[in-house]
Amino acid sequence: MNDIARRTVFFVSDGTGITAETLGHSLLAQFPEARFRQVRAPFIDDIDKAIDCATQIREAAAEDGVRPIVFSTLVNQATVDALHKSDALFLDLFERFIGPLEAELGQRSTHAVGRFHGIADSLNYKHRIEAINFAMAHDDGISSEGELAEADVILVGVSRSGKTPTSLYLAMQFGVKAANYPLIPEDFERNKLPGELHKYRGKLFGLTIAPERLSQIRQERRPNSRYAALENCRYEIDAAHKLMRRENIRCLDSTTKSIEEISATILQTIRVDRPGF
Amino acid sequence: MNDIARRTVFFVSDGTGITAETLGHSLLAQFPEARFRQVRAPFIDDIDKAIDCATQIREAAAEDGVRPIVFSTLVNQATVDALHKSDALFLDLFERFIGPLEAELGQRSTHAVGRFHGIADSLNYKHRIEAINFAMAHDDGISSEGELAEADVILVGVSRSGKTPTSLYLAMQFGVKAANYPLIPEDFERNKLPGELHKYRGKLFGLTIAPERLSQIRQERRPNSRYAALENCRYEIDAAHKLMRRENIRCLDSTTKSIEEISATILQTIRVDRPGF
Predict the structure, then answer these.
(1) Do A153 and A270 touch, CB atoms closer than 8 A?
(2) Which HAMAP family does the record cross-reference, listed alphabetically (chains A, B) (predicted)?
């Protein structure tokens, strides 16, 4: 019998709530035994909405039989006060950290609501959108002559080794322009990098994956195909390894790594010539 | 003369550092007047790396003439201690919040290092990757008959109104399967939704954009084209509005909104039948 009470967790914000949710997830992952139900409460930017949210928190407490946990990034004190009329464990991210930051910087914070993208961030935002468009336009080897010059990184690896999601994450999170290029049997037969990749050695980063995992992923796409057969996956991965070793391409195994981990590792090895890198 | 000292900000983590960076960015955006240089320090998962990082912090302090600010999600106390041998404003996310959470839950945290994806998260991770593949496979109207049944949301709007980056963000951040479908002049002439969209009215969500902004974005793609002409952008947006109004499609203006804001708003209005929504 499962006698652990379920807890409701609220992510409350005057903006998107993504900061509250990101930190909340990281903290809750430290308690793998606990059972959580998650509720997003974004755009709580006036007192009426905060009062409604407090009511939701009280209802969740009554339903669960234990008080909820609230991760909050509310900036406006009146909304904070309204929220605190309910009973919960409040983990207030701004309250804890804004004070020390103000003291350190000798400046008052703007206390601007919904400030997900500050002034300093708007250029970063533009870079991110451009990088997403770049990743889409240069996915899966669809790059014309000369276009890869603009890439910050070019991911290479066999089909379904994780290149596309990683390219998109690099773009979305960091504004890094990532192209990706599949290594296919024809490349192994020629024993040469495809297309113009030899021109951009410094930007190349290889992804590899365990043959068993690759076969499983490919099975979901094309069941019982030669493409998905374990033997073929072994051959392709082995040939890709040899090619990458010969060409001196740094390589990472994506089998048990998330796109976040792969991206953070790539950023440690490539050079991006923009502020923030 | 600019007499504000530049501060170096470190994002230190035993994992990817993305949590530290997300919270850090939100907090720093509250100080738009300050000048920051950002340094990522991911994968600080042993004492030697923490000692190296402490050295980097001291060097930054010497260079800037002011001590750095450090956002940290280190879990291991020995690495925390090694880091704290340098002088900085330490904003330690786990230290502040793990204690209250342990007390509330009546459980010790695992103190597991690099725990970006906990056990509970691995299913979410799978959903996210599937959703990214789905968004890629159903971008820009490339959906075959019946395939849209699987979508959680279908974004519609004129070309370059923000559908693709929003679809990808919904997938990446929330594991939401988002297809997107452009509304093109032929649709306005026929005065009907394209393809099979009429079958999925409950999943449709419209994006619109100011004509001036749209024209500017399209100019970057195809300078001096009819496609980018302000007059044509006005016509398309107006026609799209009329079509969406007639078909009762909820619609959001993306002109001054980030993909985070658009996505959080969409999630408030659509129904996703999975835990966490």
Answers:
(1) yes
(2) PSRP (MF_01062)
- Residue at a domain's end among B105, B133, B157: B105
Residue A85, min C-alpha distance to chain B (Å): 18
CATH number at residue A229: 3.40.50
Which amino acid belongs to residue B66?
A: V
Q: What is the pLDDT of residues A81-121, one digit of tens each?
A: 999 999 999 999 888 899 999 999 999 988 776 655 444 46
| Claim to verify: residue B94 and residue B209 sit in the same structural domain | no
What value of ipTM does the predicted structure carry? 0.92
Question: What is the domain extent for residue A81?
Answer: 6-105
Of A108, A11, A5, A19, the C-alpha closest to A66 is A5
B152 in helix, strand or coil? coil
Task: State residue B111's pLDDT score.
Answer: 76
pLDDT tens per residue across span B27-67: 998 898 889 999 999 999 999 999 999 999 999 999 999 99
**B137 close contact with A: CB closer than 8 A:** no
- Hey, which residues 3-62 in chain B have their CB within 8 Å of chain A? 7, 15-19, 22-23, 25-34, 36-38, 40, 42-43
Rounded CA-CA distance B110/A110 in Å is: 37
pLDDT digits (tens, 9 = 90+) for A114-142: 655 444 467 788 899 999 999 999 999 98
Nearest residue in A to B121, CA atom: A29
